[in-house]
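Check the record.
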Amino acid sequence: MTYCLSIMTHEGLVLASDSRTNAGFDDLNVARKMHTFVQPGERVFVILVSGSLSLSQSVMNLLRASFDAGEGLAQAGSMYEAAREVGQAVRQVSDMDRASLERDSYNFNVHLLLGGQVKGEPPRTFLIYPQGNPLSSTEDSPFLQLGEYKYGRPILDRGIVYDSTSLKAAAKYALLSFDATMRSNVTVGPPIELLLYTKDSLQIDCYRRFKAGDRELETIHAMWERSLRNAVEDLPDLRFDRPGSRDSQPSLL
């Protein structure tokens, strides 16, 4: 399985992905799901992938070849145009492989998150579906997720606010979102790739790859669990009615 996440704040973007791939609980492997395309001072794109590894690799190979040739993402005039370029690559792979996959009862399954900035416009993030169409994040809905997202969503819903969440705080929320996901689903696991992009820098600012057993990641995990337990203990005790009292009898209506 997979978990990928993008967070958009007023200071920039946070993008994160796990590196675990699997074809069952006894067939786990590691593969990078974060890919970067950079023209310093002009444009920065970060793409996170989920779904079939063979399909995502085909899409990335097409995008990389056109970018290196000065085409495709290298010429996109906006983040929306870049999202459409990624969608076009998905459609190309679909034209090549979808029929043969579905003939053997395999779904055409590839989703991508695109984040970045083109000079002259603000940073943006998009989710690209298997049909090639993009969905944009907004200030009201500033994060996008792929894969096994349900465990890591609650803390993002409670904590991420576009106008007030700093880039550094958003990075912590991202790691805690991954921590919750890995705690509840063994098919999501390290190494965790985390990238911070500062608005208008037009270059990759901060990148970190957290391997299994990373001391800092383990410290954050331990401190977060301890803080949660302490927070629960500090909540007011619940009030219960005395057994047998009229107020304690459940209503039948």
